[in-house]
Amino acid sequence: MCKDKVTGWELSNRKIFDEIVMSYEKVRWEYPDGLFADIIQYSGPGRGKKALEIGAGTGKATTPILDAGYVVTAVEMGKNMSEFLLEKFKDYGNFSVITSTFEDVSLDDTDYDLIYAASSFHWVDAEIGCPKVFGLLKKGGVFALFRNNPVPAIGEELYEDLQTVYEKYYYSYYVTKERPSKKSRDDFMKPSEIRRRFGFDCLERYGFCDVTMKLYDSTRTYSADEYLELLDTFSDHKSLPVDHRKALYEGVKEVILKHGGYHKVDYVFQLYMGRKPILQTDRFILQK
Q: Is 202 exposed, middle or buried (0-12, 13-18, 19+ CB in 10 A)?
């Protein structure tokens, strides 16, 4: 692969996460309580309903769905991640895991009430994944996608100093990548951001109706070491050549220490949901 074509987000890199299970569990973000409340309100009370989680990772988004009463089947491609999930949720009688990619998994059930993916669906081939989700849902069933997005702090001194380090050690390798740009909250609602964050244009194209998006704000402050631990769970950072990655991390740490030892990051979480039509006419009207 030519250097100018490399992004760090190639599908082959989704295997990386199975090598960093404990780091992933330790430093990856938690999702807002309100996000899960909105999923459950949209999908309906969960007691006895069936849910399928795509790319469960270490179960960062699993507990609230289990606690709502859903019977959850997790599809997780990593063997180490799957073993971690089984141990983490061993006291739940309503949890099981299948070790497979979502594209390849064979499922007996085709009437799920809820299928969801937390910061994982961009690792799925959407042209396979979206129709597959549609086929696995019962009529009226819900597809919920969500993820977090750091908000570029354009103009802030610490952030700009970090960008100088990234220009030297990150963008010198990922030469075709776009630089972060200033975003308003409304920008995350745009179709271009749906494609960028989830890997496809819109849920309507795959037959879903009652489509909605909600946003949630969050802030987290990291020490220099915590922030480096977080960066090292990102596939594009893990995929850098060792010399680039080492120099990048050293530069990032130096900048954070220079600015007091802590780095505050603002996040916008996107929740993007659609429903499989109950009536065929609903889908027909939507696609006209």
A: middle
List strands edge to edge, sheet with 50-54: 95-99, 71-76, 50-54, 112-118, 137-150, 262-275, 209-223
- pLDDT for 72-89, tens place per residue? 999 999 999 999 999 999
CB contact set of 147 (below 8 Å; sequence gap of 6+)? 118, 119, 121, 122, 197, 198, 269, 270
Would you give the DSSP letter of residue 221? Answer: E
Backbone angles phi and psi of 86, in degrees to 5: -60, -40
Q: Which of 49, 48, 78, 73 is nearest to 62 (CA)?
A: 73
d(CA 100, CA 112): 18
pTM of the complete model: 0.92
* Whole-Å CA distances, 242 to 23, 162, 237: 19, 19, 10
What the chain holds in terms of domains, given with CATH numbers, is 3-148+181-218+269-287 (3.40.50.150)
Q: What is the pLDDT of residues 206-236, one digit of tens each?
A: 999 999 999 999 999 999 999 999 999 999 9
Q: Where are the beta strands (DSSP E) in 60-136?
A: 71-76, 95-99, 112-118
